[in-house]
């Protein structure tokens, strides 16, 4: 709750939260609100890309990584936070978008997951795979 002090009358008004600026409340009463709290999204760590292969460090690639990070698919070090099936879908879509030829080898080495290709078919058969596909379509555009 905000503790707002009415400066003209010297009393405290409990209520809130009320953010930003000075407000007029009643006759000649000036109420100053507390500052807006920081947005937790602004306090997240920045992406770390030093360990990525060169194809994944281009400005276009960094844009994709940032969107995946914002959607909760990867952490700030571009390591997958999803299961094998969703990770396989993400790897395939990212590889297509960035023209990476050795899709599975590249992402298996990056994430330390084996047999991603085998997990792709499982991803397409599950309901969760379709939800993931919708988010990936939003990031990379719809597949043709």
Secondary structure blueprint with pairings:
Elements (H helix, E strand, L loop, with lengths): L1 E5 L4 E5 L6 E3 L5 E3 L26 H12 L13 H15 L4 H9 L4 H10 L1 H14 L4
Antiparallel strand pairs: 1-2, 3-4
Strands, count: 4
Largest sheet: 2 strands, antiparallel
Shape descriptor reads globular
> Order of strands in the sheet with the most strands?
1-2
Task: Provide the β-strand percentage band.
Answer: 5-15%
As residue ranges, the low-confidence spans are 1-23
- Termini separation comes to 51 Å
| Whole-number mean pLDDT | 77
Radius of gyration: 24 Å
Structure description:
With 144 residues, the chain is α+β, with helices and mostly antiparallel strands. It has helices at residues 59-70, 84-98, 103-111, 116-125, 127-140, and strands at residues 2-6, 11-15, 22-24, 30-32. α2 (84-98) crosses α4 (116-125) and α2 (84-98) runs parallel beside α5.
